[in-house]
Amino acid sequence: MSHLIDLHCHTNCSDGSLSPHALLERAGKSGVRILAITDHDTIEAYTIVRDAAEISGTELFCGVELSTHLSGCERSVHLLGYFPSQPGAEFCTWLQELQRGRVERNMKLLAKLQELGFDIHWDEVQVLAQRQVGRPHFAAILQRKGYVKTLKEAFERYLSEDGMAWVDRDEPSLADSLVKVRKAGGLTSLAHPVRISRDWNYLAQIIRYYARSGLDALECFHSEHSKEETKKLLALAQMHALRVTGGSDFHGGAKPDIEIGRGRNGNVLVPAYVAQQLVEKFTEAGLNKQCKTERTSDNTSTPRCHS
Ligand code: AMP
Ligand code: ZN
Ligand code: FE
Ligand code: FE
Predict the structure, then answer these.
(1) Which residues surround ligand 4, an ion (CB under 5 A)?
(2) Angle separating helix axes 174-183 and 200-211, nearest 10 degrees
(3) What distance in Å separates the CA atoms of residue 138 and residue 227, rounded to the nearest whole number?
(4) Alpha-carbon gap, residue 20 to 52, rounded angstroms
(5) Is the CB of 160 inside a 6 Å radius of any atom of ligand 1?
(6) Predicted pLDDT at 267
(7) In this predicted model, which residue has the larger pLDDT, 285 or 186?
(8) Does ligand 1 come within 6 angstroms of the Cβ of 137?
(9) What is the pLDDT of residue 301?
(10) Which structural domains are found in the chain, ordered by start?
(11) Which atom of ligand 1 is nearest to the CA of 156?
């Protein structure tokens, strides 16, 4: 039986399709022994399955995937936060604020879609989403009602930054989010870095800057990375003394080609040292004192927005 590691997956507490218990069961059946659920802006799934994980022998870390933006730039960046157990009240209250921002965004987005003439109502979006409503749920309704043929088309025409119903959400900056996670005792990792840019000079500049501003790790293993990209990211992690994380970004039926612990056609196999690094971080004595957020002597300027 394989002993797989998956530090990036979603449940129906955000935009995944499986319930937290169903995800835990799927992980077990797939041979995933070390797991972090990283729903968008919520740790609810962790609180639901932590006891069941202990009983089933799955090592479960508390995780979250935060939607943030680069300073001085609208570019959206996903930041992963990992904790050995549930973070404290201050961090959880902050997550609740982020949830309120999502609700506001969703209301504006719904109004825009209705203005565009679509027959879409809040109740149906909410029924589909069950818990947190995200853009993928709007996309699914647009598709179900025949307004678009594919989810991709829904994003391209309406929901993406260039789409007709785009609403700018009041997202926290990446810099603030790094501070928030680290203050709560968490490890920060830049999710699927190639989504920021595949211009490697620019990406290297971003990584170099944030490595000096509280970023702990790079998500080098991810189902959207080619082998070559993973190699380049591993080299960048080493260059900047960053740890390495990895995961499939499993969303269940919402992204059916991605399997938990394996990614797309087995393209994500997270090596054991990744989990060791995570455990090491959480057991290191006095780590907070050496926290990189406090290393402010380096006066590298903020990278400029790159469009
Ligand atoms: P939200 O967090 O509600 O703004 O929704 C963002 C989520 O939508 C991302 O995490 C992706 O899973 C999904 N998404 C974003 N862009 C696209 C796209 N072009 N095609 C399909 N899914 C997308
Ligand atoms: Zn998602
Ligand atoms: Fe993401
Ligand atoms: Fe994700």
Answers:
(1) 65, 249
(2) 40
(3) 33
(4) 10
(5) yes
(6) 96
(7) 186
(8) no
(9) 61
(10) 4-86+173-284 (3.20.20.140), 97-159 (1.10.150.650)
(11) 19
pLDDT per residue as tens digits for the range 261-291: 999 999 999 999 999 999 888 887 344 433 3
Give the residue whose CA is nearest to atom 12 of ligand 1. Answer: 136
What is the whole-number distance in angstroms between the Cα of residue 194 and the centre of ligand 4?
A: 13
- Determine how many CB atoms are found less than 10 A away from the CB of residue 99: 15
Confidence of residue 304 (pLDDT cuts 50, 70, 90): low
State the amino acid at position 299 in one-letter form.
N
Tell me which residue has tokens 């930054």.
161
Name the nearest CA neighbour of 184 among 214, 212, 219: 214
Q: What is the structure's pLDDT at 71?
A: 80
